[in-house]
Amino acid sequence: MKTKWLMSSSAMIMGLLGLAGTFIPEEISKILEIDSSPITLILLQIIGGLYLGFAMLNWFTRSALIGGIYNKPVVLGNLMHCIVVFFALIRQLAEQFHFIFVILTVVYFGFAAWFTLVMRSNPLSNQSKMSV
Predict the structure, then answer these.
(1) SS in 3 state form for the chain?
(2) pLDDT score, position 86
(3) Domain total of the chain
(4) What's the predicted TM-score (pTM) here?
(5) Which is nearest to 2 in space by CA: 121, 128, 89?
(6) Could you tell me if 111 and 17 are in contact, meaning their C-beta atoms sit under 8 angstroms apart?
(7) Which of 2, 11, 17, 35 is 20 to 30 A from 129 (CA-CA)?
(8) Closest CA to 15 of 46, 45, 56, 47
(9) Mean pLDDT of 97-107
C-alpha cells in the first residue's frame, strides 16, 4: 500500500490546524463561540503546537516504509489521535451542530480508516509483487 499520500495529506491537514491554533486562537474561539479567556487561548496554542509536531512527524516519515511492523509507533500514534478526535467530534455534534465539526468528523473518520488499513497491511508483500 502506498503511504506517501496518507502521510503527506495528514501532515498538511495537521499543519494547517496547528498553524491556526498557534497563531489565531482568538479568532478560532470566536468562530466556535467559546469563551476567549487566557486559559482557553493558551490551550488552543498548546494544541496547535501538538498538531505542528504531528505534522512534522508525518511529513518527515512520508517516504519511509510504513505498515505492519514498520514504523508502527508512527501509525499507532496517528491512529489513536484520529480515533479519539473522531469520537470527540461525534460527541460534540450530538450536543451542538456546527458545520466545521461535520467536515472535521468526515476527515478524521477517513484518516482513522486509512491508518487502520496501513496498520494491518504488509508493505513488503506489496513490494515483492511490484518487482516481479
Answers:
(1) CCCHHHHHHHHHHHHHHHHHHHHCHHHHHHHCCCCCCHHHHHHHHHHHHHHHHHHHHHHHCCCCCCECCECHHHHHHHHHHHHHHHHHHHHHHHHCCCHHHHHHHHHHHHHHHHHHHHHHCCHHHHHHHHHC
(2) 98
(3) 1
(4) 0.87
(5) 121
(6) no
(7) 11
(8) 56
(9) 92
- Spell out the long-range contacts of 66-70 with Cβ–Cβ below 8 A and sequence spacing 24 or more: 66/3, 66/7, 66/118, 66/123, 67/1, 67/3, 67/118, 67/119, 67/121, 67/122, 67/123, 68/119, 68/120, 68/121, 68/122, 68/123, 68/124, 70/123
Confidence of residue 132 (pLDDT cuts 50, 70, 90): very low
Length of the chain: 132
- 12 touches 45 (CB < 8 A): no
